[in-house]
Amino acid sequence: MNLVRRFALGHRSSSPPWNDGAPVRKELFSVERLEQHAESLAAAQPVTATPPRVLSLHERLDDNAAVLLAAYRASAAELESGRGMVPAAEWLLDNYHLVEEQIREIRDDLPPGYYRQLPKLAEGPFAGYPRVFGLGWAFVAHTDSHLDPDILSRFIAAYQRVQPLTIGELWAVAITLRIVLVENLRRLVDQIMAGQDARADADTLADRLLLSGNTRAARGPDTATRGAEPMPEIFAAQLAKRLRDLDPQTTPALGWLEEQLRQQGVSIDDVVQRAQLRQGASNVTVRNVITSMRLIADIDWADMLESVSLVDARLRAASRFAAMDFPTRNMYRNAIEQLARGSSSPELEIADRVLEAARTASDEAADAVEAERTGDPGYHLIGGGRYALERAVGFRLPWRMRLGRWYATVGIGAYVGTILAVTTLLLAFSLLILAEPGVDAWLLVLFALFGFLPATDLATHLVNRVVTMSAGPSLLPGIELAKGVPQSLRTMVAVPTLLSGEADLLEQIEGLEVHHLAGAGGDLV
User: Fold this and answer.
1) pLDDT for position 38
2) Do 45 and 163 contact (CB within 8 A), yes or no?
């Protein structure tokens, strides 16, 4: 057993689903059969608020990354030594940079806080793991790792006909597909490395048997393997390949091999055919894994999410949600996620409550302008109607949001008060260090007076840093206007300019032309 094989075995978890080293490959389903499977899967996957403790996906990813790197290095060494390689190993060698990129993307896109928020399964082989992970595993298994965006959309839609997925889970579909593809590639690599070991052992034995005049070696297998475990099929197939064209009178090893396999209930033709089928299946699956990894990077997952999101569908059907630009739609979705996490209501119910509040506010508005403003879901999600909606759904404010709102309410007073409090702490800490026996009190007072301004300056920088890290810029809601500005929103843009000469005038004219060409088009002048 070579170093890579020992490394893989030493890093295999004994808990499900990692205790099975078989590739993630089941019966290949048609699209219609996939949809039926998605519906039955959704009915059989209950979630729990108290999942069992399991090996995290981050730890398994690190394990897979280490095994794949070791396999890549071992395959590169095999290639440099001039030994032959199966096509699946060549796929890994040629595309390992893509595998590294997928692993890096997973680590960046699945921080621990996001992972904890995903609903976890209560039972089954994936108990304790995110529900969307089980969904991704099933899709990869029954498509032989071949990713088709349209089929994936239909699979997710069929799942949600029985059990709606959260917005966070829909965003995690791409991440979990990457995780399962990396897991499948690791299992295939384990299989490939085991096959290479078996073929190398068979070649070693064949070389020993084929030594000219070595009749003792020819008799060796019969005594060396008597009572041993069943012969691996890959080993037997490679040995048969090496011995097939030899004279059975001078080298009787082929007859011994036939007898050994007959005792196992198979023939040489059987093991050769199975080894070829297994190698061919591995080659196809590795190719599909690499191709799917490349395709994942090209799919617009934002469009995919919006096409299968049930929350989006309800907001589009009853409001002007579809007319907003993507950042605005995403703000609406984030607000619904936040309200659902802080209350006992699921996201679809929150969306319905928002639409109901918008209809009620629009009907009670004093004029058409007020009706249009309060009749938009955004008014209740990110605008003035947010507080009333929070009370209606029983939203429990997180401490960070509560603190932020208090600061926003108090305004400049909270900002100045925080700076003074930090200044006081800095001075108190400094005086505590200096207050040793024998130091006069007037010296400490003098130090405090002269150190007040530097401490205030330092406190201001510290507070500003914390504020900028915790409170980022706020996006203004916007309309997408994909086809340009309509006549109802006809707009004139005025650019104030100070003209000091002909050169400045020409520069401003050129700038206006650039602004015009970069504009959204339509009735915009």
Assistant:
1) 96
2) yes
pLDDT tens-digit map of 281-317: 888 999 999 999 999 989 999 999 999 999 999 999 9
Q: Among 226, 227, 239, which residue's Cα sits nearest to residue 268?
A: 239
Evaluated on CA atoms 238, 244, 245, 251, the torsion sign reads: positive
78 neighbors 6 (Cβ within 8 angstroms): no
Here the contacts of 283-288 (C-beta below 8 Å, separation 24 or greater) are 283/86, 283/87, 283/88, 283/91, 284/144, 285/23, 285/25, 285/88, 285/144, 285/145, 285/184, 285/188, 286/87, 286/88, 286/91, 286/92, 286/185, 286/188, 287/88, 287/91, 288/144, 288/145, 288/146
pTM of the model: 0.82
pLDDT digits (tens, 9 = 90+) for 171-224: 999 999 999 999 999 999 998 888 878 877 887 887 777 764 444 444 444 434
pLDDT of residue 347 exceeding 90: yes
Three-state SS at 201: helix
Q: Count Cβ atoms below 10 Å from residue 50 Cβ, excluding itself.
A: 6
Report the interhelical angle of 173-209 vs 57-80 (nearest 10°): 40
From the CA atom positions of the chain, what is the Rg in Å? Answer: 34
Q: Specify whether the CB–CB gap between 206 and 155 falls below 8 A.
A: no
Query: Residue 502's pLDDT is what?
Result: 85
Burial of 197 (0-12, 13-18, 19+ CB in 10 A): middle
Residue 517, pLDDT score: 80
Pairing state between β 120-121 and 47-48: antiparallel
How far, CA to CA in Å, does 64 sit from each of 11, 100, 104? 9, 11, 12
Q: Which amino acid is at 504?
A: D
Judging by beta carbons within 10 Å of its beta carbon (0-12, 13-18, 19+), is residue 286 exposed, middle or buried? Answer: buried
Q: How far apart are CA 168 and CA 471, in angstroms?
A: 22
- The whole-angstrom separation of Cα 160 and Cα 190 is 35
Flag whether pLDDT at 87 surpasses 90. no
- Supply 347's token pair: 């996201």
| Residue appearing with tokens 């981050």 | 58
Nearest 10 degrees: Cα torsion 350, 356, 357, 359? 150
| Six-digit token string for 9 | 């075995």
Share of the chain above pLDDT 90, in %: 49
Cβ 239 vs Cβ 200: under 8 Å:
no
245-268 pLDDT tens trace: 666 665 677 777 777 788 887 877
pLDDT at 226: 42
With beta carbons less than 8 A apart as the criterion, state whether 142 and 27 touch: yes
- Are the CB atoms for 181 and 102 separated by under 8 Å? yes
Helix (H), strand (E) counts: the chain: 24, 2
Residue 479's φ and ψ, nearest 5 degrees, are -95, 140
